Amino acid sequence: MVYMFLRSYVVRPLVALAFRPEVRGLEHVPTEGPAILASNHLSVSDSVFMPVAVPRQVFFLAKADYFNGPGAKGRVVAAFMRAINQIPMDRSGGRASARSLSAGGRKLQEGQLLGIYPEGTRSPDGRLYKGKIGVARLALESGAPVVPIAMVGTDKVQPIGSRLPLPRRGTRVTTIFGEPLDFSRYRGRQGEHAVLREVTDEIMRAIQALSGQVYVDVYAAEHKRRLAEQKRQEAKQAAAEMLGTAKDKARSAAHTAAQSARHAADSLTHRDSPAVPGEDAARTTEP
């Protein structure tokens, strides 16, 4: 109830007025019954632009952080996420992730639309990354069709680090829904990892065909860890270079100070040394 009210009377009118987004292929989303909406993930605002385009409610697997935030703000966000029936997704792997997927599976059994980002996290650079097999497991266990979706332009209106999406001149957000994918030929084989990998890869190829993104056969989270480690190493190297430069400057300053001290000492020594007898007289008698 809260979801549909906000979508119809608050979010959708604001989005339409500010961004005038384009929607293609909406006829591929079933008007009833379960379906998995599998989308690329460029921006936080993907979870705004895609659902407002769909007349039915979309239940998203949302990262658990939204439900566990600290302080008053965290409680407000958690209450809002629960009010719109979003499902906390534990991305730590193992049994915790399996429980989250099971919660999504129950929504499919109830005949609902379930939104999921197979990449597991936002793309750090606009490319399409390797999908995680959870989406395939949901598809095979539920028998629900998978609708591939391409979000285009959301990373421009809300780049990583931006708090809110903002209209950008020359950028139009587009949501593209592809033809549903049927994986009934694999039914009952959700326990086979090779099958799950093949189904996931087929879904990612369908998303790429819609989005036109460059595909990277690496998990986005893994790539982000590599980038973070690279930045740490670069920062460490920069710090070492700064420290080395500072030491060189300190040594140079110390050397300069030592030279100045020696010169001053030599000057004092020369000034205070006794004159040689007869030297002044010799100077005065010289022709």
Automatic annotation (TrEMBL):
Residues 230-287 are annotated as: Disordered. It holds the Pfam family Acyltransferase. GO terms for biological process: phosphatidic acid biosynthetic process. GO terms for molecular function: 1-acylglycerol-3-phosphate O-acyltransferase activity. Residues 35-154 form the Phospholipid/glycerol acyltransferase domain. One of its GO terms (cellular component) is plasma membrane. The keyword Coiled coil does not apply. PANTHER family: 1-ACYL-SN-GLYCEROL-3-PHOSPHATE ACYLTRANSFERASE. This is Acyl-phosphate glycerol 3-phosphate acyltransferase. It comes from Kocuria flava.
